[in-house]
Amino acid sequence: MKPLVAALAVLALSFAPAALASESHPTLTELEGEVMCPICNTTLDQSSSPAARQIEAVISRRIAAGDTKSQIKDRLVAEYGQKILAAPPKSGFNLLAWLLPIAGVLGGAVVLGALAWRWSRAREPVPVEARLDPALERRVDEELARFDEG
Amino acid sequence: MKPLRLAAQAGAVALVVGLLGLLVWKVAHDNPGGVAADFNAGKKVQAVDFTLGRLNGKGSLSLSSLRGRVVVLNFWAAWCDPCKSEAPRFQSAFERYRRHGVAFVGLDVTDYSGDARAFLARYGITYPNVRDQRGSVLAKYGGLPIPRTYVVARSGRVVSYIFGEARPEAIDSAIKKALTA
Predict the structure, then answer these.
(1) Sign of the Cα pseudo-torsion (B119, B121, B126, B129, in order)
(2) Over the stretch B73-121, which tens digit does the pLDDT of each residue have?
(3) Domain A2-96 - what CATH class?
(4) Which CATH number fits domain B34-180: 3.40.190.10, 3.40.50.620, 3.40.30.10, 3.40.50.300?
(5) Which of B145, B154, B144, B109 is CA-nearest to residue B130?
(6) What is the C-alpha to C-alpha distance for residues B79 and A145, in angstroms, rounded to an integer?
(7) Is the ipTM of this complex over 0.85?
(8) Distance CA B28, CA B48 (A)
(9) CB contacts, 8 Å: B112 with chain A
(10) Which of A69, B66, B79, B101 has the greatest count of CB atoms below 10 A from its CB?
């Protein structure tokens, strides 16, 4: 178990420098996929509208000025609102957008599990009382005695 | 167990009915074409009031504060090419008609504020301009595309609507119509 945990930790740490570099030295290409064009409802990299080009120019200027990715995004949110971000931030009320799908999947799994359990219980054979009706039992005994005699 | 089940079923039905009610309300109250669609349909349309922050100057500006005057509302953005062509025409009209009490208001839509201010400086725009940052006022007036220009009479009624780049003669005739309305 310990080697597995260590391997996972090493794997996670191997991504950390890339994430840090992306935060402190963002590129226009990566931000184009994370920022929306305000008039075309697509990300900047999917749009060739003048409004998208204007925001690309703003991003380029901010990158040249040395802004981090968060600073650039904050500036754009202040100008255009949260809708300018392709994905909602993982904080506050917007956290619901990330948690609700997970809760939905988990809830669905619980419901499916409960249904499967009920279904399997319903198919189990119901124990039947083995005792026969006394009159019938007596008749069966008599028939068997007659059969033995014969 | 039975009352609980009944309550759950009643809750589910209430939820569905509630959502259906919301849908019906939304469909009944939605007016995607806004002022422009009503104007084009020949209806008598009152200009929709707004209060927005000033782009050039401090504070905010409400359309209702200009009631009793002819008002020219021009929706524009720095990224919009036809807006660049018509901007000097509006400034020129503002200089000619201000002595007649005509007010001009530019509404900058979904724009980067730095670029918008540079636009005003580049074209020498001196009449009040406000920022419709998220396009919510524009949506009530018909939405994209821009430019769009509405001329409002003293009564508050929209008397002219120019879709697209406004030519000087169209601006003149719209203002004259509003002054005599």
Answers:
(1) positive
(2) 999 999 999 999 999 999 999 999 999 999 999 999 999 999 999 999 9
(3) mainly alpha
(4) 3.40.30.10
(5) B109
(6) 107
(7) no
(8) 19
(9) 54-55, 58, 79
(10) B79
